Amino acid sequence: MNLQxxxxxxxxxxxxVLLTAFxxxxxxRIYSLIHLFAWQxxxxxxxxxxxxxxxxxxxxxxxxxxxxxxxVILLPYILHVLIVRLKIRKEVExxxxxxxxxxxxxxxxxxxxxLTAPVRELSTLIxxxxxxxxxxxxxxxLLMMITRRHAVTQIIGFLAMENGLFFAATSATYGMxxxxxxxxxxxxxxxxxxxxxxxxxxHTTFDSLDVEQMARLKEGD
Amino acid sequence: xxxxxxEILQVMMLIGLAPMFSGWVKMLKCWSQGRSSASILQxxxxxxxxxxxxxxxxxxxxxxxxxxxxxxxxxAVLAGGIxxxxxxxxxxxxxxxxxxxxxxxxxxxxxxALAGMDIGTAFGGMGxxxxxxxASLAEPAMLMAIFTVSLACGSTxxxxxxxxxxxxxxxxxxxxxxxxxxFVLIALTETGRIPxxxxxxxLELTMIHEAMILEYSGRHLALIEWAGMMKLFLFMAIxxxxxxxxxxxxxxxxxxxxxxxxxxxxxxxxxxxxxVLIETGLAKMRLFRLTEFLGAAFLMATLxxxxxxxxx
Lengths: 221, 312
What we know:
The complex is a heterodimer. By secondary structure, chain A is mostly helical. Helices cover 78% and strands 0% of the residues of chain A. Chain A has 7 helices and no strands. In chain A, helix 4 (98-122) runs antiparallel to helix 5 (131-147) and helix 5 (131-147) packs antiparallel against helix 6. Chain A is globular, with a radius of gyration of 18 Å. By secondary structure, chain B is mainly alpha-helical. In chain B, 71% of the residues lie in helices and 0% in strands. In chain B, helix 1 packs parallel to helix 11 (257-281) and helix 8 runs antiparallel to helix 12 (290-311). The relative contact order of chain B is 0.17. Chain A binds chain B through residues 8, 11-12, 14-15, 18-19, 22, 26, 98-99, 102, 105-106, 109-110, 113, 129-130, 132-133, and chain B through 171, 174, 177-178, 291-292, 295-296, 298-299, 302-303, 306-307, 309-312.
């Protein structure tokens, strides 16, 4: 594989990561949301492996495998089990309507493109052009957390943000040191368990995972 | 000079083959639903029957109502002269680019909507209002998809775009993939297929295009139906030209026209299969969910444009 082809494949993967980010932003059904999250993880892990191969950084293989096992298999499985246990069947409610959210998302992509333009000029890595996509993924994850009411959806938004950060790390600097990445992966895993426990508590207390309910914390009204 | 002959050939082919393509789609649809189908030539018989019948005009029909079928038909024919279906050597293609093409479809739609309201029946007005709502959402998405392809190819002329994409140096780009997805969604909308509109229904609550042309009869109806078939054919041809331009003859190579014709039949036939798969797999959407459907098309087209700037 020459550099040109690799950069080409990588830009395709970046485009798909961005596409899945938008898909999650507009997807109403919670099962499809989890599937999209798993797809994003898959694209991310392939991209990481490819960058690792080209750059000769072999620790990127380990982070690629970590991404694959954590974000494609384990986390979606945990979320799936949670949804089955908590019997969430309803469509996810959004605060702003979907076309509006799309437009804001597009504006965020343009914003991140402008923000990363100076970095692109300075960098010499083959993956430099995907930095804007990575930043956009982070911002779209954040937007998702803001526009959704459901606790599970907000967590998926959070995890998508982490995906974006991970992507930014590989595209801007060929990945963080392995120790850091292991730590982050562990953090995510622990966070998922803690979220699960929290979901159960919120669910038993309020009988719903709609975070709007938590605005009234007084007893007896 | 050979350009004009090709031009005429292409238009004749469009007029002649569009009903057969429509019959092919109907046939596939019947098969996919386990029904026995009418012959592939049935649309020709339908058209012939309609042409032999009298036109019944409402008393208060104005010139717009009588003029619209001819306009709709001729814009479809004109569009057939712009799109490089067989060859990129089209004299009309130099004067009219892809934006003109969108405008041609828009004119036809505008007059159909006016004609729908002209008689003053409730259904016509309802159909027109729905059609215009959809148009207002579909056209920005369509233009955005076209701009994306034009940016990637450096020209808005359809012939030039086909030459650039067809050249050996071109590679599959993310922006073109996005533009293609957007184009598929828009083509479903523009040609009034499921999930946007159901071409086979006259159910009051769901029809859009059929509601507008409900008052037409005789040769007027035949022309509008024919134009509708041509529009379906044209959108398949645009898709084939922009995203799968294999086999289209270059300028100065009129010898490869028969080969290009064979390729075109194959591509259009295959696109009919895809269309039927989409249509059988989906249910018709509620009208108010169309904003999301077309919003997705707009999003895809815009993402294509952004990924052109960001990634290429």
